[in-house]
Amino acid sequence: MGEHVIAVDVGTGSARAGVFDIDGRQLARAVTRIGLHRPQPLHYEQNSDEIWSAVCRSVREARQTSGLPADAIVAIGFDATCSLVARDKGGAPISISASGKGSFDTMLWMDHRARTESDECSIADNPVVSRFGGRLSPEMQAPKLLWMKRHLPEAWARAGNIFDLCDYLTWRATGSNARSHSPLAAKWGYEPVAPGARPDDFYDRIGLSDLADKAGIPERSTPLGQVVAPLSEAAADDLLLSPDCLVAPGLIDAYAGAIGAFVSEGGDYDRKAALIAGTSSCVIRFDRIAETKVGCWGGFHDVALPDLWLMEAGQSASGALLDHLIRLHPAGRSASPPSPMTLFDAIAERLAVEGPAYGAPLTVLPDFHGARSPVTDPHLTGILAGLTLDESFDGLCKLFWRACVGLACSIRDSLSNMPGAGDIETLLMAGGFASHPLIPALYANVTGRTVVTDTTRDSVLYGCALHAIRASGLARKAAGKAVSFNPGRRAVSPDPDAARLHERDYAAYQIMKRHQAELTALYG
User: Fold this and answer.
1) Which residues of the chain register pLDDT less than 70?
2) Which end of the chain has a smaller Cβ tally under 10 Å, C or N?
3) pTM for the whole thing?
């Protein structure tokens, strides 16, 4: 066996695979798109067989691109969005569509059909609710499961294996029903210290006393620092890897990004937070002590970096909001709509001429898909102010950029509510939303923090690879080399002039939040 691992990251719209050596070098990367079904508002569905096929294609392509033989891959790790995969006792898919029909067995993480159930779950007087900041989000699994039990009784009767997506991937890879501590603690309510106990009292309180049987979930979670099992023969054939390849426990995708970001900083978590920005955005802090706060999720112990507590905040829609605004604007509804990168390039030219005030006074409150923090409220809605009848491409650029400013203001607001917020001096930014240089600079100017990105390596895949190295035992061979190898660190400090202008934007953001509260109270 060799000294290489493969990391797999399943996001909202694609499955990515990367090949890494134990020094942390990314040798190859491949991406395969995944479809998304939106049958009605708030419902977002996928097909887990399609997801697995996309994973296999990306793994095969990445390894072949690297030039490595199959037996050079010692271990494989999977991270994924916190989507919910429904299967029966025999492992066959169960439709989660409201009709009960079709091939979609996966509720995407951003599926908000269970908003009523999330409100009801939050009433329960239980430590689980406290760990989730006093209110459960419909993006968590308990509300989704309760919705499924109520609205799809025939599907619920058949259920026997219901997985967080990253656990589904390890199940497909090994046949093992081991469930990772990362999603179970952070999305299923298991006790926060691994191996965490199943919260049966909470499940009983919310009407899910039969969940252990219907979901096939164990009494305790599987800690991250161990192997689930080697690849099954079938999975080895699907992935074109050796059946001796070891499989690490699954990770939440944002937590994999936080691992990659912090290890790239030498593992120093003091006065730092990770910002993993893609379709949604997560702000993540690590500490030696557990902290709980309203509007902040956690703490969860050893769900990412070993021996540390994780606290989380963020946005339900960031990249998803920008894509939505492109579709809404007349200039974005052409046969070939402009991509976000095309818009960023055009905005960069305009900013060079007009400065940081470009697009003002157009203002965007970005809660189009509810809010995670500083309050968890899936019922909140977004606001656009300062619109005109402008249908031009420049009008789209202004709207797009001012939405980016609104998102940055929202992250500043979330940071201010996190435990230890006053100590945070640096944001370690990763994810697809951070790929254009305008964004790290904007977030530095709006938040007043130095923003650090890795320009040569995919931080989410890197974190997943480090996790696989740790679980497989390769970390002893690495002897810290993966920590020291960081070829593309780029730090952006706030520009004083731009930061002063963005103080006005943050003031406008706070005014819009007050108006949002007034309108919500008015309409009930």
Assistant:
1) 1, 477-487
2) C
3) 0.95
